[in-house]
Amino acid sequence: MVYISPIGPLHIKSDGTALISLKLTSQAIPTKPSDCIEEATAAWLDAYFANKPLPPLPGLNPSGSEFRRAVWRELLTIPYGATISYGTLAKRLRTSARAIGGAVGANPIAIIIPCHRVIASDGSIGGYAYGIPAKEFLLRIEQ
Fold this sequence. Notes:
- By secondary structure, the chain is of the alpha+beta class.
- The protein has helices spanning 36-49, 66-75, 86-93, 97-105, 132-141, and strands spanning 2-5, 8-14, 19-24, 84-85, 118-119.
- The protein has a three-stranded antiparallel sheet, covered by helices on one side. Strands 4-5 form a two-stranded parallel sheet.
- β1 and β2 form a beta hairpin.
- α2 (66-75) crosses α4 and α3 crosses α4 (97-105).
- The longest helix is centred in the N-terminal third of the chain and has 14 residues, at 36-49.
- The radius of gyration is 15 Å and the shape is globular.
- The protein starts with a strand and ends with a helix.
């Protein structure tokens, strides 16, 4: 399904039992959910962008290596409104900041797996797969 968000259209993809992808897309025409996972994801996004209490997350099943999945699980522990550096994540997972950056950049479930909450060690925004303005917007609405 395509969900129209303040940062652009988002393509929501489910395998019927869990959310497998949430990415920006160029398709600007909204479409209806095809299952309850897509519907729950859209409801979560509605609340998130309206800065309202978040409903429970749908099940998540991102595809990736065990290392990437470990990084994405760690991202889910970053509290709403908080940030963490690539270096701090690297220390937690006993790896390099570069490896963390690769996993963060490959996150297939944007926003819900909050890769936008990872910043550079000097406190600067750092990169974001969907552009710095989108990352700044997401961090700003969480403040």
